[in-house]
């Protein structure tokens, strides 16, 4: 079964390759502005320097934990590394949300009673 997140991601019109390349370019630019080598950033993040090279070229899908460490060690805002991504296709998002909308409404009083959203 295809996950909803994956389906939305594909329908947004942004491919994994485009995303990784954009992130990689932004990470490389931020690393160079910070005056760090790939080897230095790799040591700080806790990965091999070749991994940093692969991330910067957009050929290595990396963990969110590595993304957080990269952001912290480069001293940049996480959003700055996402700049340049194509915006999602609003028509497709609307179509998917409409198609996958819940058939029944969640219990309105559950949130009021517990302060938590209803599960399942």
The helix/strand order is HHHHHHH
Mean pLDDT level: 83
Structural class: mainly alpha
Largest sheet composition: none
Point out poorly predicted stretches: 1-11
Which class of one domain in CATH terms? Mainly Alpha
Strand content: under 5%
User: What's the β-strand tally?
Assistant: 0
Q: How much is the radius of gyration in Å? A: 19 Å
In helices, the fraction of residues equals 55-70%
Task: Tell me the name of the CATH homologous superfamily of one domain.
Answer: lambda repressor-like DNA-binding domains
Give the overall form. elongated
Question: Any descriptors?
Answer:
120 residues; 434 Repressor (Amino-terminal Domain)
Fold and architecture overview:
The chain is mostly helical. The protein has a domain at 15-85: 434 Repressor (Amino-terminal Domain) (Orthogonal Bundle). The chain is 59% helix and 0% strand. The protein is built from seven helices and no strands. It has helices at residues 4-11, 16-33, 38-45, 49-57, 64-74, 90-99, 108-114. It is elongated and about 55 Å long. Mean pLDDT is 83; it is low at 1-11.
């Amino acid at each position: 079964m295809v996950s909803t997140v994956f389906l939305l991601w594909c329908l947004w019109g942004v491919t994994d390759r485009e995303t990784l390349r954009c992130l990689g370019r932004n990470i490389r630019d931020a690393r160079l502005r910070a005056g760090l080598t790939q080897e230095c950033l790799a040591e700080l993040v806790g990965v091999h320097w070749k991994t940093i090279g692969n991330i910067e070229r957009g050929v290595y899908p990396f963990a969110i934990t590595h993304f957080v460490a990269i952001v912290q060690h480069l001293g940049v805002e996480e959003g700055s590394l996402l700049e340049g991504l194509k915006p999602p296709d609003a028509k497709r998002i609307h179509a998917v949300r409409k198609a996958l909308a819940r058939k029944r409404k969640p219990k309105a009083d559950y949130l009021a009673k517990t302060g938590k959203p209803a599960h399942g």
